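Methods — Computational structure assignment.
A single polypeptide chain was analysed. Its primary sequence is given first, followed by the predicted tertiary structure written as structure tokens.
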Amino acid sequence: MSKFQDLGNTAYRAIAKLVASALGSFDIVQSVFLRRSVAAGEVSFGRSDIDLTVVIRSPLCTPEEAERILALNQRCRLMRALVPVLGEVEVGTLEELDRSYRADPYRSSLDRRMAVFVYGEPVDLPRAPVTQNDALHWLVIWFSYYLPWALRRGDRRNLRKFALEMWNAYATAAGRIAEPFCRRSEVEAAWRQAADPSFPSDLGKDANQTFGDCCRIVVRLHNELSQPLDPISGPLVVPLDRSSLVVIPSPGHRLPPEAFAPKALVVTPEVLDLYIQHINPTLYAKLPPELSSLGFRPPTYPHFVDYCRRLCSDPRLLRRPGFVGDRASAGYTVKMLARAKQAIACLQRGEIPRAEPLDAARENLERPPSYREYYRSWYPCLYGDAVEVWRQLDALPYRVCPSC
């Protein structure tokens, strides 16, 4: 680690402690810990964000408790105005964190091993084994938003970072490591030393090339785990409601202009197959014949159950406005819960959940509530909806459903 890197880590952690103390001055806060790059000691000075998890003693979900959660929210927004490098502030009870981590053991493994407590007494974070399916989810999740976003911007730095994250998930899913590496420097060292095809010497030097490197990681693992799909001769562009699906024949193939359109999901057939299985199984029903005939595997009942769990188990879901996003992010909460309710209702009837637009959950409400209105009026109702969704999820049998 360079002296400049060490200085950046020290400065960021000192700032994090000040922010955590400001948030921890509320008696509802039990503890605060650091996540991601600052916790890993891999700060990029001026680029990294300080991401925190605030553990609260109770959900503060009744109208009578609204002023307490609103006051914490106001303090968080004040700190973000004073400290521009403050990133996501995840807020949840230990019970909510436990549900989140058990729905996503891969993320749980990283947070548990990297957590740096900067306020209060450390708490025990749940330990759950990381399965191949958990790692496959994190192998292809980057195609949902992050990779297309970086590709459109020509953001070579983030594309390189995402490639490392994906190789980390690849190594975990392939059984090379039991748990993902905590630091990207460890990932890069392992990738360089691997006996398989070498680490790309030009990784991050060209945006399109690095996107192709990301696709190659997925294609390789797909072909190790499944029968190869039939090839396509050229790019296919499939309109999907308010988004589009752009399928290229192979990694490194020249990207069509549609690949750079807002909300475009850009994939190879192999990426799409894993994406359907582990990110959005409702997309399978939307595939046109020229794609569905390539040999895609239909998602099973457990895939849909996992999909529902991911929709509504993240503690950032309910407390987004002011903690994670702006007030317009209330639309994310409303739509994710609506999608989960609809999908669970279908599963209860033994039906396949209806396909949703790829990016529907990221759309904003036309008239988002103010922060005060959200936490006083919307939040108690949405929390009640979430509790009912959690109850229904826990009651779903985790089995293979012949009709799915």
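Note: The chain has three domains: 3-120, 132-292, 301-395.
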